[in-house]
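FIELD: query
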Amino acid sequence: SIISRFSSPDGGFYRKVKFLIEELQSLGNLGNLRPDTIILTPNRNKIPVFCTAMSSARSLGTPIAAIAAVLALCAAPARAADKDEARRAFTESETLYRRGEFKDAMRSVNAALDFDKRLGVAYELRARLWHVAGDLTRQKTDAARALDRLGTGAGSLGVDELVAQGGALLLLGRTGEALSSFNAALQADLKAPAALAGRARVWRERGDFAKALADLDGALQRAPETPLWRYARARAHYDRGDNAQAVGMLSARSDW
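FIELD: result
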């Protein structure tokens, strides 16, 4: 109800306010915060950001609404250096994930989010890792956080962001919207292997294993040394009852 006062769920301002409310709730004791001066530590270096609410905050009446509104307007974004480190850690975590090194991938993606809590693609990757771990609650929570930051429309999103958007939607069971996101990514880059692998997950969810295999073949043509996608291809063969093909694929490499 607090969030709905400010903007629609599709607006950037809405997402900022929701993000800031999450941050405020994580502080635990809101009673220590005065409505005229807010102290927030938004990055891993614990550098305080001071925001003065003045009379505009008081006029909102509800303390948490006042705090969220003020922070949405004046909280400092992650520093450029932090964003670079976040992107580096995220790239590392994605590489580890595709190798099947899930614990190390989780460690790296958490580091990425320590540097930049607005990195939507990192929340989506962490949601996939929770899926692997069988933690449905955290999977859905992080998938929703990814969409809060990425939105649900194509807009000006890049290929990687569209792939992450599709992944988050899929993890929330919204397969039709997920398919649209992966298709949009492939319209932007027909050779994007992650988009093909992501769309294959939609086809598998729908039981269309022929299309899943076709997309995985395309992904592996562009990135053949990707164990996770080779496993996904073997699993698609298994799911459609072709056990010999599945075993053959998994037996073809001895270094996994």
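FIELD: remark
The longest strand covers residues 37-40.
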